[in-house]
């Protein structure tokens, strides 16, 4: 396909500037988003088995609830029942609770029964590691609120809109050579050409995924103005019907048994697995129970579940994300938007696919920045200041974000030895490491800091399985079990460690033996030392 050169230059400019202004934010969002595909597994890995609710059999769960709500006021106001294989576990919020994604100060009380059916309780602060990574995915780590919305969500919404434009303009620029060079990875024409071929290949192959993510991210970020705009159509009539306020307060003793709830939900959602019931406001005229339902063979409205909110005493449904006949066409259509963004419509296979696509997306933004830098570098003499600044930002932000997440995961188990607010510590660890990496990148320069930060990433990834091993033998540690996450986190950490080690060696080799007039080149201090390194890395 032939396109006029002036048109191509226009789209090239649009692609370049929409990409370079959003790439760092989107790198963080995509890397963290890839990890959130397995948020439940990360949560299970981070939470000690000895500090979570111990399940009782299905036959004893009603006895456990009865004892808890009659002896503990907080439990009588609301509690959580987690259903596991062959039983159920009970807990309630001693402090905090609510529907916010991240609540740093929540404390849970766990209840179980001993062999004599006597109530046993224990308490612990919640571990929000998975939710904090999810929040990083949604906001790129930007702190602050605009009204009731996170500032970072709105900023990422704008970035997603520009990212959509970058995708379209990038495809147009690539059209004249698409067929000839799509699968060409020309390693013999220099590192710049290899990065360009890789960037184009990843962008084109994953284009449907990126268009979908960009579009849904904009809708998620600006859903309030979108719904507000529909007021032109609906007038004063509310778009969503809200249930009226209740007038009757019920006695907690009238609460049906768990078997009744299971049978009720089985009728409403026969092909789902009930994972959790969350009761709240039981002491008010507006009590609610949220039923979390999982399925691996269909789109889900939430990241990992569909949810039915209903009255715990009358079973009147207030809101449901399960497709019901009264939802008509609207329900499945809206749910498909959520499911396509969350990647939950194909079970674990779909989540692994989204995990890989998320990492490739992060690579796409990183490689785009490298191409921008290569195109603007000086072939002779000192590099321009703008190139040096962008190079330092690219290395500091991208590697710093990954290093911050990895450091928070390493710190997770050790923080239990310290009497320190766990979730606040995660924030301190992440932001300290993130900004330290950016500062180090500016202080030492992009080329040297890239090597050092990649080796630091290797060390942090190795420390994750080492920490898991040491946590089993260090006195004073809570108890973790292999069954909690099946060693998946440790396996992935080792895999990432190998990737970072290889990448660090290649970056070091390029710094000393690559093109000398490059922003990634470093002066050779000792020829003999360089020769030794060349033999090792060759």
Characterise the protein shown here.
57% of the residues lie in helices and 11% in strands. The chain has 538 residues and is α+β, with helices and mostly antiparallel strands. It has a domain at 380-522. The strands form 2 sheets. Strands 1, 2, 3, 4, 5, 8, 9, 10 and 11 form a 9-stranded antiparallel sheet that branches. The protein has a two-stranded antiparallel sheet with strand order 6-7. It is globular. The chain starts with a helix and ends with a helix.
Q: Could you report the average pLDDT, rounded to the nearest whole number?
A: 87
Main beta sheet strand tally, sense and closure: 9 strands, antiparallel
Q: Tally the helices: what do you get?
A: 19
Beta content = 5-15%
Alpha carbon gyration radius? 26 Å
Instruction: State the end-to-end CA separation.
Output: 41 Å
Unreliable spans: none
Gross geometry: globular
Summarize the SSE layout with pairings.
Blueprint: H1 5-36, H2 39-46, E1 56-57, H3 61-71, H4 73-77, E2 80-84, E3 87-95, E4 107-113, E5 119-125, H5 129-139, E6 145-146, E7 149-150, H6 151-174, H7 178-181, H8 191-205, H9 207-221, H10 223-229, H11 231-234, H12 258-268, E8 273-280, E9 288-294, E10 306-310, E11 317-320, H13 330-342, H14 347-376, H15 385-414, H16 422-444, H17 446-471, H18 488-513, H19 527-537
Antiparallel strand pairs: 1-3, 2-3, 2-8, 3-4, 4-5, 6-7, 8-9, 9-10, 10-11
Helix pairs in contact: 1-5, 1-6, 1-14, 1-15, 2-5, 6-9, 8-14, 9-13, 14-15, 15-16, 15-17, 16-17, 17-18, 18-19
Features:
alpha+beta, globular, single chain, 11 strands, 538 residues, 57% helix, 9-stranded antiparallel sheet
């Amino acid at each position: 396909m032939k396109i006029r050169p002036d048109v191509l230059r226009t789209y090239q400019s649009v692609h370049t500037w929409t990409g370079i202004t959003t790439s760092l934010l989107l790198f963080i969002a995509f890397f963290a988003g890839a990890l959130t595909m397995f948020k439940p597994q990360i949560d299970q890995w981070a939470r000690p088995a000895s500090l979570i609710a111990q399940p009782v059999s299905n036959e004893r769960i009603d006895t456990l609830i009865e004892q808890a709500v009659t002896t503990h006021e907080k439990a009588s106001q609301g509690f959580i029942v987690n259903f596991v294989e062959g039983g159920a576990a009970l807990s309630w919020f001693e402090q905090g609770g609510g529907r916010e994604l991240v609540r740093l100060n929540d404390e849970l009380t766990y209840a179980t029964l001993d062999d004599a059916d006597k109530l046993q309780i224990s308490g612990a602060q919640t571990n929000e590691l998975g939710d904090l990574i999810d929040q990083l995915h949604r906001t790129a780590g930007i702190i602050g609120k605009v009204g009731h919305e996170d500032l970072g969500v709105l900023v990422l919404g704008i970035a997603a809109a520009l990212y959509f434009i970058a995708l379209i303009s990038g495809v147009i620029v690539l059209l004249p050579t698409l067929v000839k060079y799509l699968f060409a990875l020309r390693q013999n024409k220099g590192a710049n050409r290899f990065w360009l071929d890789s960037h184009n290949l990843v962008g084109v192959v994953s284009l449907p995924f990126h268009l979908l993510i960009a579009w849904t991210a904009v809708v998620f970020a600006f859903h309030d103005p979108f719904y507000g705009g529909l007021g032109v159509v609906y007038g004063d009539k509310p778009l969503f019907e809200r249930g009226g306020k209740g007038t009757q307060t019920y006695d907690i003793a009238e609460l049906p048994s768990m078997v009744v709830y299971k049978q009720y939900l089985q009728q409403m959602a026969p092909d789902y697995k009930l994972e959790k019931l969350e009761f709240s406001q039981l002491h008010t005229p507006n009590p609610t129970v949220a039923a979390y339902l999982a399925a691996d063979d269909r789109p889900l409205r939430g990241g990992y579940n569909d949810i039915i909110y209903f009255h715990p005493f009358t079973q009147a449904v207030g809101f449901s994300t399960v497709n019901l006949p009264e939802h008509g066409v609207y329900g499945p259509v809206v749910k498909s938007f959520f499911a396509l963004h969350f990647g939950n419509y194909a079970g674990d296979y779909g989540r692994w696919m989204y995990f890989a696509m998320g990492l490739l997306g992060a690579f796409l933004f990183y490689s785009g920045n490298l191409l921008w830098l290569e195109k603007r570098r000086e072939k002779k003499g000192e590099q321009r200041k703008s190139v040096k600044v962008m190079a330092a930002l690219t290395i500091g932000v991208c590697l710093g974000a990954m290093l911050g997440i990895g450091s928070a995961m390493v710190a997770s188990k050790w923080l239990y030895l310290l009497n320190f607010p766990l979730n606040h510590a995660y924030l301190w660890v992440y932001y300290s490491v993130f900004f330290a990496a950016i500062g180090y990148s500016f202080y030492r320069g992009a080329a040297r800091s890239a090597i050092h930060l990649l080796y630091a990433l290797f060390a942090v990834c190795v420390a994750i399985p080492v920490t898991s091993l040491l946590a089993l033998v260090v006195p004073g540690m809570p108890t973790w079990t292999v069954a909690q996450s099946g060693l998946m986190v440790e396996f992935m950490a080792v895999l990432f460690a190998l990737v970072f080690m290889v990448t660090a060696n290649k970056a070091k080799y390029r710094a000393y033996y690559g093109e000398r007039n490059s922003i990634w080149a470093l002066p050779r201090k000792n020829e003999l030392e360089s020769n030794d390194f060349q033999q090792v890395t060759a």
